[in-house]
Design brief:
- The protein is α+β, with helices and mostly antiparallel strands.
- It is built from 16 helices and 23 strands.
- It has helices at about 5-20, 20-25, 50-60, 110-120, 125-130, 155-160, 170-175, 245-250, 265-270, 300-310, 315-320, 355-365, 380-395, 410-415, 465-475, 480-495, and strands spanning about 30-35, 65, 65-70, 75, 80-85, 90-95, 135-140, 145-150, 170, 190-195, 205-210, 235-240, 255-260, 275-280, 285-290, 330, 370-380, 400-405, 430-435, 500-505, 505-510, 515, 530.
- Strand 5 and strand 6 (about 90-95) form a beta hairpin.
- Helix 1 crosses helix 8 (about 245-250), helix 4 (about 110-120) crosses helix 5 (about 125-130) and helix 11 runs antiparallel to helix 13 (about 380-395).
- The longest helix is centred in the C-terminal third of the chain and has 18 residues, at about 480-495.
Length: about 525
């Protein structure tokens, strides 16, 4: 019997056997790394989108004042260090020596002040920080000064957070751009320069080692912390939407690293002694159906809860990650499994055995009358496409009048940024995921905010969640914070800013000649060949 898995694997093997040998030799240059990202890099500004591929791009081009290590503890990065004064109301951060932008200009404190302000106007965690900030200033070229309304002991954590949107530093002239408008010129101070003139939309993005980058001279590399040493002169991101083609290119050495191989091909890749397949991110990816809370019919909580009755998390996880349970978990709420705030409060809202007939009745009781539901689907993003296929089937069986819009990833990102009604290009719901590191606590959890139009895509409003989030910041100890997180999860299952679909642990695959891979998401410093 020919299965989908065997057919894809056979196609990949055939393609691998027919790729020309001369290209293999060319790709094995010790100074060039060829990488296949999870999706095309359609947008460049890390403040403008929570897309993960944009974060990975941003951490090549830009740098951060702090970076977290594998234990999620913030360590100075661009900062030399900081001093906290006046009972926690004043933070003075000193920049380390040797920081330069890619245009040759020194990194000054005023560049950082402007960057923090722009980022703080859009990021979930940043918005929380800005509510307690009286003033951010640059008393000198090397000092950033925070004057606070009340103590904010997590300030270094927020400036070095790994979840989107990362707080990157850019020149003041770019950072003064309206936060609602895109920065298109990529000038950072990170270990790699972005070569805009070599960009081929939908196909290629190129980065070059920045000779003027000075890594930290202390510490050990650990996730986003420690020295960032660039060993490759050139890194090429090659977008290859077809999984069999990407697998074949990896097996022959035409590419070096495939960020997200699909589950059907994992056994084939594992069997190749020239490849390594491993999970780098222990917090995984929290999958979700995200609703548009501004537009009917999912502006009504009854409609959102009606769909919850049709969810089987294991169906989604098998579609995304395969049958091997080591690559996924179900029974997942609103916090990443294994994180300090993970708990099982409210999980009884997830049905053990979905009943589509009851879901139809619940939809009718919620007032659904057959309205068109716009569902944008990125066909070139395998994980999201798999979730969307399961959701599409579920909604059709539940009697939803579904407008299943098959699009490319860049178009989906632009569409879900729109707050317009569906007859003006808007949307109703879509499948997405958040990195687990962005869902470890209420502070970092973008998708658990309830601030309406000022939040991220979906724009839910929940005064209750916001009040509890504020209580979490003010809690005196970890036990109190966990108790609040439990209450938040119960409330979230009532409000349903999104429906959690489980967590999957995405393996990455790369040539065994590569060493120095850091735990976490794709980071291109410290990686070298041989």
């Amino acid at each position: 019997m020919i299965t989908r898995r065997s057919l894809i694997a056979r196609t990949a093997a055939t393609a691998a056997a027919t790729i020309a040998a001369p290209r293999l030799a060319a790709s094995q240059s010790a100074r060039i790394l060829k990488f296949v990202p999870q999706a095309d890099l359609a947008l460049l500004d890390p403040v403008q989108s929570t897309g993960l591929v944009i974060r990975h791009h941003a951490l090549m081009v830009f740098d951060t004042l702090y970076g977290v290590d594998e234990q999620l503890r913030p360590q100075p990065q661009m900062a030399q260090g900081h001093v906290v004064e006046n009972g926690g109301l004043v933070w003075r951060i000193t920049l380390r020596d040797g920081l330069r932008f890619h245009d040759g200009e020194r990194v000054l404190a005023r560049d950082c002040v402007a960057s923090i302000r722009r980022w703080g106007a859009r990021d979930t965690y940043g918005l929380s920080l800005m509510t307690v900030v009286d003033e951010i200033s640059a008393p000198s070229d090397t000092e950033i000064r925070f004057r606070l309304k009340r103590p904010f002991p997590l300030l270094a954590d927020v400036l070095g957070k790994p979840g989107t949107n990362v707080c990157v530093m850019m020149p003041e002239r770019l950072a003064l751009t309206d936060p609602m408008q895109r920065v298109t010129e990529m000038v950072g101070s990170g270990p790699f320069r972005y070569l805009a003139n070599e960009r081929v939309p939908g196909s290629l993005n190129v980065y070059e080692k920045f000779a003027g980058y000075a890594p930290r001279d202390k510490g050990e590399p650990s996730f986003m912390a420690g020295p960032k040493v660039a060993y490759f002169d050139r890194i090429e991101w090659r977008t290859i939407p077809d999984a069999a083609t990407a697998a074949a290119a990896l097996q022959t050495g035409e590419i070096d690293w495939w960020e997200q191989p699909i589950s059907d091909l994992i056994p084939t890749l594992k069997a190749n002694r020239n490849l390594k397949v491993e999970v780098l991110d222990r917090f995984g990816a929290v999958a979700m159906i995200r609703f548009n809370h501004l537009q009917p019919p999912f502006d009504r909580p009854e409609m959102r809860r009606a769909l919850l009755g049709a969810i089987r998390q294991d169906d989604y996880m098998i579609a995304v990650a395969g049958e091997d349970r080591s690559y996924w978990a179900d029974g997942v709420g609103f916090f990443a499994p294994g994180s300090p705030m993970a708990n099982d409060a409210g999980l009884d809202a997830l049905p053990k055995t979905p009943d589509i007939a009851r879901v139809r009745e619940a939809l009718k009781a919620a007032g659904y009358a057959g309205e068109r539901i716009v569902f944008p689907v990125p066909t070139d993003f395998p994980a999201l496409n798999a979730m969307s296929e399961v959701s599409g089937d579920m909604m059709r069986r539940a009697g939803i009048n579904l407008d299943y819009q098959a699009l490319d990833w860049g178009t989906v990102l632009q569409k879900v940024a729109s707050q317009q009604p569906i007859d003006r290009g808007g949307w109703n719901l879509w499948c997405n995921y958040s990195t687990g590191v962005s869902a470890v606590n209420p502070a970092a959890h973008t998708y658990l905010r309830g601030v309406g139009r000022t939040g991220t895509f979906g724009w839910p409003t929940s005064p209750e969640l916001e009040q509890m989030r504020g209580d979490w910041f003010a809690a005196p100890d970890e036990a109190s914070r966990l108790d609040i997180s439990k209450r938040m999860q119960v409330q979230a299952f009532q409000d349903l800013p999104y429906i959690p679909l489980g967590v999957f642990y995405q393996p990455t695959a790369y040539r065994s000649s590569l060493t120095g891979m850091l735990k976490g998401f794709p980071l291109f410093y410290n990686v070298k060949r041989g």
